[in-house]
């Protein structure tokens, strides 16, 4: 904690006078539900984890002494420990659990945590029940098929889907994974957060294509989430004590970085080079003009614009520049005036210590 406070204090000194702390985020965002905590904002209403217990995950994971399947379970254990209790509806399901998979109904699979209000302790107990040994071939389509019976909940649902991009689809009996994901995205307010351990071009393309079915979905690299498990659930909530910098503003309908913000980003880039254990969370936002779907995409481009600036100019690896995007959620000023909308078109930066 002392180290984190030190880092934040140093960075404040690097900021020019016009880029100081932003006002506390207003809890009027369409996607954020008010909670009792003054520190956290809930940015989604529901979440599901779809766990991959396939035999293709039963391979050594680097030099950790774990299989990739065991590492997957460790990610979930550590990620769950970082979550505040903000009243989500949550579930925990495997892709499938073996059996006569050609004829089994998606509803036939018993969940490890049946859809209900999230509780960290009982959710953690459910994670411990997840298999650490493979249960059969990779079947990502089964997890996606199961979601059709679980979605339709009020508010936005974030789905965290582990996969290596492989699947064993029964021709004529099951939809292809991409087709199923497109159907779900068209029908429900759902975002896919895919934790990718794909090693083949075909597997990577499939997962990238699934993440492209709408603007709020994305691919997370398995290695990044293993090293920074708190990153996995970042789209479920915002920590207002860490997301205190409002240091990049954008012109209307633009995602290019304005020249006036170059010096601050240059100082940030040098700071990251000097402090190799730190990383940043980049959160993109928009004003309220335009559709939600368009603004989600625009806020994504803004977060990625800052990431690309720091990555290319300072050769900082992507696993230290972690982007999120929220559209017009969580405004820091009124959207009724040009001045307020200008403040809402932003990327905020939270600096975190990786140790």
Which strand order spans the largest sheet, edge to edge or round the barrel? 6-5-2-7-8-9
DSSP strand count: 14
Relative helix content: 25-40%
CATH fold call of the largest domain: Rossmann fold
Provide the succession of SSEs: HEEEEHEEHHEHEHEHEEHEHEHE
What best-fitting shape do the alpha-carbon axes yield?
Answer: globular
Could you say which structural class the secondary elements and strand pairing correspond to? alpha/beta
The CATH architecture classification of the largest domain is 3-Layer(aba) Sandwich
Flag low-confidence runs.
Answer: 1-36, 99-108
Radius of gyration: 20 Å
CATH superfamily of the largest domain: von Willebrand factor, type A domain
Key terms:
355 residues, alpha/beta, 60s Ribosomal Protein L30, Chain: A, Rossmann fold, 2 domains, six-stranded mixed beta sheet, four-stranded mixed beta sheet, 10 helices, 32% helix, 20% strand, globular
Describe this structure in words.
The protein is an alpha/beta fold. Helices cover 32% and strands 20% of the residues. It folds into two domains: 2-25 and 240-353, OmpA-like domain (60s Ribosomal Protein L30, Chain: A); 42-235, Rossmann fold (3-Layer(aba) Sandwich), CATH 3.40.50.410. The chain has ten helices and 14 strands. The strands form four sheets. Strands 6-5-2-7-8-9 form a six-stranded mixed sheet, with helices on both faces.
